[in-house]
Amino acid sequence: MKMQHWIPACAVATSLLASAASFSQVTEDGMGKILPVELYVCQFMDGKGHGDLEPVVAQWNAFMDEHDVNGYAAWLLTPYYRGAEQNFDVLWMGAATDGNAMGRGAHHWITEGGEVAAAFAEVMDCPVHLGLASAMYKAPPKGNTSGLQVISMSDCKMNEGTRYSDVRSAEVEWAQHLSDAGSDAAYYHWFPDFGGGDQDFDYKLVYGYTDLKRMGSNWEMMANGGGRTKSKEIFGDLDECDDSRVYVGKSIRSTKLRK
């Protein structure tokens, strides 16, 4: 077990708490309602940047309103802590309220969104499009996913002989520990679903924070407040996670994802 479990800051949001109201959103098995999430990995075209993207996002939002696509939230994630292999400019992160909303939104986009898609293509190239299934172990403050402005992700692989039911039980206990320690970080597992095929991980471990100050305070709390010992006690050798990537996010479309 690497440090991602005990240092939430180094584990977009995305993004993702201490109150009893937050835990009311988590289901009996601790995973919450499973939601579809998508990631576009994008690079700006030559001479383009965020200023060029803003009017296209406004055009996209108008398109979504026109077609009454309400069950979808989206963020733009800019890399903050990253390695050399993270050679892209921005991630588009989207989440739908359920599979039906995902399908309806995709249908409208494919059949009606050509003009907006062309506008996006003039600003950025997004060759990678991934679909994931998101399980929530710890909700954001008051369930407000749009308020998550810092997202961290790491890739985790279960060790030989580990069953996910063992991981799930440990994560439920860890989420309770975070709440007892006063952490307001949100906490998810994302499972590969569409668009991958050669991934070398079983799930992504995702933390969400409202800002970088919260990320830092959680880091200090867990690094020097007993989190390391508790993590080792809970997780043992269930899995291994790589170094986390951290992204600063901007909510560009919001909806209540989990009722």
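(the above was protein one; protein two follows)
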Amino acid sequence: MPQYWKSKTLLAKIEGAYGTDSVPTAGANAILATDVTLSPMEGQDVARNLERPAMGAEPMIPVGIFTRLTFSVEAVGSGALGTAPAWGPLLRMCALAEVITPATKVEYNPISDNHESGSIYMAIDGVRHVVLGTKGNASLKVGANGIPMWQFTMTGLFSLPTDQAKVTPDFTAWQAPQVATKLNTPTFTIGATPFVLRDFELDLGCQVEPRMLIGTEAILIVDRNEKLRTTVEATNMAAYNPYTIAQNQTLQALQLIHGTVASKRVKIDVASAQQGRLTGLSNNQNIVEWPLDFVPQQVAGNDQFKITLA
């Protein structure tokens, strides 16, 4: 019988020790994802380069094998103040610390060491892929009249898939999102100046490296290079001058708030960002728009951005 692509489940849970299966369950750790792709055996092939009496292709040995998953989830809070969202473990796998203030808020900020890893179970119509030691990168994308989404690229250790009984995932922890509109996304500012926003993307910029050596096999986050991209409606120079700001390297604070319901709101704060050169203008509906790129900067360290759910 064929295997049906739509018959799949995705489970994820933080590991207590790197590469040790944390055994995610369908009842507590289900991920409500979209646009899932699975590359189960990334790596290299080593040719044996045998000298033989006849011409022909060389036999190959697969080495340095790892698994990569990509998927997106809706960016909306848990529905309860001070309760982490169901996608919180995924951000923790992307070198972010989760700080919970009970009954008040949940915050995420970058960290430079002691990065957490996770176990991910990806099942497709009864065939389960277990991906251990998983770490990754994420981008938050917000576009006008669209659902704000976290886009994840997760990398983990390879293991052979097995046949398993299907499970029934529990998605009750996942809240319905609001689309990004004037009403639902009340705040977007650059340097305290409000802008009309077309799209916004914060790329966490995690450099994820499989390290497959004698004595170790691990997935590491070895660096971070955050990027922030946005397209806004152009203004006059008195309100905001992107040319002199880029030329003078004047640092800017950015803030985006999406959501109108307490406990479901997502707030992005970038305290200090360097704006790149404005290399072109956009024409949308015969309205001039600026594609602006920013590089979040450290102030005291590990504070390039903060994500707050409140």
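Reviewer note on protein two: The radius of gyration is 22 Å.
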